[in-house]
Every structure is written in C-alpha cells, then in structure tokens.
Design goal:
The chain is mainly beta. The protein has one domain (2-21, 32-129): Sandwich (Immunoglobulin-like). The chain has one helix at 2-16; strands at 35-37, 43-48, 54-59, 65-66, 72-77, 84-91, 94-97, 106-114, 122-129. Strands 1, 2, 3, 4, 5, 6, 7, 8 and 9 form a nine-stranded antiparallel β-sheet that branches. A hairpin with a 6-residue loop joins strand 5 (72-77) and strand 6. It is globular, with a radius of gyration of 14 Å. The termini are far apart.
Length: 147
C-alpha cells in the first residue's frame, strides 16, 4: 500500500512538470559537472554516467565530495504514463543507481532525497536534458550558462 501511494505521488509529481519550458535557470555545477541540488544539506550532485546510471555525490560546505551517510535517494524519470524508478546503492563515496535511465535524451525527472530514513523528503524536479550545451560544455540538465 505504501509503495502504491509513493508511486502515485511520483506520477503526480511528474505530471506537474509538464509545463517546464525550454529555457532554464542558471544552475551550479557539482564536482563532476553535474546538477547541484542545493535544497538539501549536504548538497547533492545529480550526474548521469556514460552507462546512463545516475550518480549522486554529496557535497560539503567546502564544495568537496563528502561520503554519503544515511541518506535515501529515489529518482523517478521518463514517460509520465510509465515512469522508471531508480534506487541507489552506496558505491565508494557516492550513491549509484541500481538500474539505468530510460531511453531518450529529454524527460521529466524527480529526485527525492531523505537525509535520514525517517526524515521528510526533499524533492528536486527538473527536465533531464542530456544534450550538450554549446557554451559551457555541460549536459543541459547541469548547464551553468543560464541561457
């Protein structure tokens, strides 16, 4: 029942991102040139690896990577009618998704981060666009140009 409710909430959250425009706000880049999520402490970098897995690196106040503690991360991405949900395993000093992102280069994404298993989740919602920016050379989801 709890899983069904969480899945329903994830689908609703993805539906709410339907009005995302092609323009994007200026973002901060993390240590791997991924998207820095600053709404959680420590900050978290969302980075898509060459294998299309998502890597979450926590970043300390000094801007350097910090080892994950008890954080729980879930990413929901892809087609709103059949979203893909990614769970994570601690691998070295990062969290690495157990599966890959769905095919395609542009789709809505919701990142749910709980600082502890009991904590209230913090959500980051954005359009995951993996095209490369011509100016800063980051993937568009992590573009720091603000164009």
């Amino acid at each position: 029942m709890k899983t069904a409710i969480l899945s329903l909430l994830a689908i609703i959250a993805l539906a709410l991102t339907a009005t995302v425009s092609n323009a994007h706000e200026k973002n901060e880049a993390g240590p791997n040139r991924g998207r820095l999520i600053t709404s959680v402490t420590p900050h978290a970098e969302f980075f898509v690896t060459a294998e299309r897995k998502v890597q979450i690196t926590f970043v300390g106040e000094d801007g350097k990577p910090a080892a994950p503690a008890d954080q729980v991360v879930v990413v929901t991405a892809g087609d709103r009618a059949a979203p893909t949900q990614l769970t994570f395993t601690k691998t070295g000093n990062v969290l690495l998704s157990d599966t890959t992102l769905p095919s395609g280069n542009k789709f809505p994404t919701v990142v749910q981060i709980k600082t502890t298993p009991e904590a209230k989740p913090v959500y980051a919602r954005f359009n995951l666009n993996m095209s490369i920016c011509g100016e800063c050379k980051n993937a568009e989801y992590a573009c720091v140009c603000g164009h």
